[in-house]
Amino acid sequence: MSTDDDNTFLAIMTLVHMVNDGFEMVLPTLLPMVAISLDLSYSQIGIVSGAMVLSMGLGQAIVGVWADLVGHKKLMIIFGVVFSSLGYIALGISHGYYLLLIGSAMVGFGLSIYHPVSMTIITSRFHEARGRAVGIHGCGGNTGMFLFPLIAGVLADIIGWRETLFIFPVIGIVIITIYAATVRDDNLKMGEFEPRKLMVPALAIIILSIGLFNMATRGFFTYFPVELKAIGHSSSITGAYFSFFFGIGILGQYLGGCLSDRYDKVKALFLLLIVAGISMYTALQYPTGVALFLSILVAGISVNMVWPIFFVLYADKTPPALRGTGFGVFFSTNYIFAAGSPVIMGQLGTAYSISAANLVVLATGVMGSFAILLLRKR
Predict the structure, then answer these.
(1) How far is residue 108's CA from residue 50's CA, in Å, rounded to a whole number?
(2) Residue 268 and residue 313: Cα distance in Å, rounded?
(3) CA 112 centroid distance within chain
(4) 271 plus 357 within the same structural domain
(5) How many Cα atoms sit within 13 Å of 324 on the Cβ side?
(6) Residue 247 in this model has a pLDDT that exceeds 50
């Protein structure tokens, strides 16, 4: 039976979001074990990992346009989870590099479908308390990113990486079956498809700001484990800090959503982006003791508060009939921005020092905060 109840709908969407974002963290968690088992080179490890990110980035713009032109958003979400589940099965049966590469790309493309489609549905369905709904939905993503790496790591030590990879498709199919049976299809094909209406300064400013912020976060995620390894921390300690970051981010997502309903979004983003940039930079520069704990605490809350505010602000500025395309461009552009910071930081670290590289995280976070102020002039 399909549901029209907003609370039930949001709870189920949040559950699917947990699976979608949790899936993104499973392969990175298991890849070191896979690499040893299949004797992968460092280059092959990087390409396998990059295949998922690249297919996620390229897929989202295509998916967004398709959602606006064709509709059937419920079927698209079902297809995304099923396709990424099949990708994990392909990874599980891999005995060589090429099938591993195909499986990684399949997972990435499947994951690319959910965000532009789900954000279109949620921001169109919820008009009052839209920020709260987006924040609650975001809590699901953080829950998946907190739980799935822990589950994958523990199971891999007990039953092996192949068997572990076969378990996650089962989780995905169960959850998406619940979704298919209970959520009605919001077709949401509204009006003429006129993508030129997205070519406005306000949307470009928001994308620029979130893109710079994503450069900061991707640089942090890439080099934070490197910093901890350099001072002798184990992989389990690194994983614990990341789990703490995503776990405390559940609260951040909810707070950010509520904040966007009650306060000026531009002002909130300006302050939060500065706090997020400083806290991530501090964690990189001082990765020990109380300073590290406090900086991860502040970063986990502030970084995750930013997302629902950006989503609501972007939806407010996007024509309803173009939200799928708009969010597709939004997410794809973010991945393009994010791909640049690890490369820039690597070059700076090689040419100068790791401290110089860490400044990229601070600089891009602060630049994103000032970029969003350009909306004041619109």
Answers:
(1) 10
(2) 11
(3) 10
(4) yes
(5) 29
(6) yes
Residue 183, strand partner residues: 3
* Beta-ladder partners of 3: 183
Those residues with Cβ within 8 angstroms of residue 162's Cβ, 6 or more apart along the chain or in another chain: 92, 93
Residue 16 sits in the same domain as residue 163: yes
Say if CB 208 and CB 371 are below 8 A apart: yes
CB-CB contact of 188 with 72 (8 Å): no
> What does each C-alpha distance from 187 to 71, 75, 82, 129 come to in angstroms?
5, 10, 20, 22
Distance between CA 117 and CA 113 in Å, rounded?
7
**Backbone phi and psi for residue 232, each to the nearest 5 degrees, phi listed first:** 95, 10
User: pTM here?
Assistant: 0.82
Count of CB atoms situated within 10 Å of the CB of 289 = 8
Q: Mean pLDDT across the stretch 169-197?
A: 80
pLDDT tens digits along 21-58 = 999 888 887 877 888 888 887 677 767 877 887 888 78
Number of domains in the chain: 2
Q: What is the pLDDT of residue 140?
A: 93
Is-contact 168 152, C-beta < 8 A?
yes
Q: Are 61 and 332 in contact (CB under 8 A)?
A: yes
- Interior/surface letters 141-153, b for 16+ CB within 10 angstroms, e for the rest: bbbbbbbbbbbbb
d(CA 59, CA 63): 6
**Could you say which DSSP state residue 333 is in?**
H
Give the integer Cα–Cα distance in Å for 282 and 289.
Answer: 12
Q: How many whole angstroms separate alpha carbon 166 and alpha carbon 37?
A: 17
Given a cut of 70, whether residue 72 has pLDDT beyond it is: no
d(CA 121, CA 60): 15
Residues 201 and 177 grouped into a single domain: no
Q: Which domain holds residue 342?
A: 196-377
